[in-house]
Design brief:
0% strand, mainly alpha
């Protein structure tokens, strides 16, 4: 019999192999769309051997869109202003692993070795993220069934292609879930995975709320909690009183822990901004150090090279390249995507936004009073035998995190990006779908993570052999599996996807 955690491990591996096979099939059968997108400048002098052509044939479908940027950064660094939108940890890891693989497999050229390195990194990060996500869910829900089903659904999530393609989703999901779990368990060096997540994706900064929240929760004493629990009315003054009592109850050493976590976690991000400024906003950078093919591509496409001092962000009071690049090159901003021509993209993002909003609404309805106590105290604790609770109160900080990300997706980003952004950053979609797919059967399957037949199998999973499917079950499976297959088809052929 396979334990649920072990089955999650196997299923994560199987789904990654399946994604690789699907993109090969679709990339071979369908001609590539000639997209007006960034294509990394290749070195014409670099030799391409038979074994390199095999790698291109098998995995070129994973290098589309942002993958072109990551491979370029991994090889040449930040050579153009527009690529400052991509954070450095993922391409830096590709470069490091490439150096190691070059020693092991010297027959491949640098480009094919980088592709192998990127796919290997994503494969490992995804499998580890699935295991960490299982542990996180079990810790929050104290329930093996929910943990197992949520982790299985994560393995077939609607943004699956991006977790295998040369994108940073797998690495970011792993570090984010690790930060969440470490925060709950009060891990002493939580700042380490937190800082790394910030260096992978900009929205990693939001993860800093998890260690802060749980440090506050840890610091609250029982004597103070009784005083705070009195303030449960729905007036803003009561919320302020709760906050005031909480702040007074925190000891100085707890404030020091929180402050040190914030400083250490944000330090790499600050260093990155200084690096960007020094490279692009001072004239000390020698452009002759760049390869000829990189310089020629810049001239041909009118791209801004390092060493320019006239960019608007260079002369801003707080010179942050990221927001400027997103606004200038990708037209990212408040309500800028609300155009009639973008309606198909809104429809594409609708399912995941609906799931997020539904989960948030149900939690808020279930814990009306606890919301005003910031989730620190549970008024249902004394009557658990009489009140049936769907969501644990421990989800409060995850709900707040989910609300922020959902609002950010709705009003600021390119709306179709919501699918992969939310799929890699929040566990709410998997928790909600796992709960609605948990049913009580006559043989008490709800008390197990699988049917008796599946429990003894390494490969069989619950959603492929359920005795009955509700309409909600069908919606979830159609959405998850449908987007996985369609995503492989669209992405591998350079067609626009989420």
């Amino acid at each position: 019999m396979y334990a649920p955690r072990k089955k999650v491990l196997w299923f994560a591996i199987v789904t990654r192999i399946t994604i690789l096979i699907l993109q090969i099939i679709f990339n071979v059968l369908i001609p590539d769309h000639q997209a007006d997108a960034f294509k990394r400048p290749l070195d014409s002098a670099e030799k391409v051997f038979f074994q390199d052509r095999i790698i291109y044939f098998l995995f070129n479908g994973l290098t589309r869109w942002d993958g072109e940027y990551f491979l370029h950064i991994a090889r040449y660094g930040y050579t153009y202003e527009n690529i400052l939108a991509f954070f450095p940890l993922y391409p830096a890891t590709i470069r490091i692993v490439t150096v190691i693989l070059t020693k092991i497999f010297p027959l491949f050229n640098i480009q094919s070795t980088m592709i192998i390195a990127a796919i290997l990194i994503n494969f490992i990060c995804f499998v580890k993220s699935a295991i960490i996500f299982y542990d996180l869910t079990e810790r929050v829900f104290q329930n093996t069934v929910t943990a197992y089903k949520a982790a299985i659904l994560y393995c077939i999530n609607p943004a699956s292609i991006f977790f295998s393609a040369i994108y940073s989703e797998s690495m970011f999901a792993y570090l984010t879930f690790y930060t969440m779990l470490g925060s709950i368990e009060y891990m002493s060096n939580i700042y380490f995975p937190l800082a790394l997540s910030i260096l992978v994706r900009s929205n990693g900064v939001v993860n800093i709320g998890f260690p802060i929240y749980f440090e506050f929760k840890k610091a609250l004493s029982l004597s103070n909690s009784k005083r705070i629990e009195k303030h449960q009315r729905k007036h803003i003054i009561d919320i302020l009183l709760v906050l005031w009592h909480i702040l007074k109850s925190i000891k100085l050493k707890n404030y020091f822990t929180i402050l040190s976590t914030m400083i250490i976690s944000l330090s790499p991000f600050i260093v990155l901004q200084i690096y960007n400024y020094m490279k692009f906003c001072t004239s000390t950078f020698d452009k002759s150090l760049l390869p000829v093919n990189v310089l020629q591509y810049a001239v041909k496409n009118n791209l801004i090279l390092p060493g320019r001092t006239d960019s608007l962000w260079c002369n801003a009071s707080v010179p942050l390249a990221y927001s400027y690049v997103q606004k200038t090159y990708w037209n990212v901003g408040f309500l800028k995507y609300y155009q009639f021509k973008q309606i198909p993209n809104f429809i594409l993002a609708l399912p995941i936004l609906y799931i997020m909003l539904q989960c948030i609404k149900e939690f808020a309805c279930e814990y009306r009073n606890e919301l005003y106590l910031l989730g620190f105290f549970d008024s249902k604790a004394k009557s658990k035998n009489t009140i049936k609770v769907k969501y644990p109160l421990n989800m409060f900080v995850f709900i707040v995190h989910g609300v922020f990300l959902t609002m950010f997706c709705l009003f600021f980003v390119h709306i179709q990006v919501s699918t992969r952004l939310l799929a890699s950053a929040t566990p709410l979609i998997y928790w909600y779908c796992a709960l609605i797919m948990s049913h009580k059967g006559t043989d008490h399957i709800d008390l197990q993570y699988e049917s008796n037949e599946n429990m003894c199998s390494k490969w069989k999973v619950f959603f492929l052999s359920q005795k009955r499917y509700t309409l909600q079950d069908k919606f979830v499976l159609f959405y998850f599996i449908g987007y996985t297959i369609l995503g492989c088809f669209m992405f591998s052929n350079f067609l626009p996807w989420t």
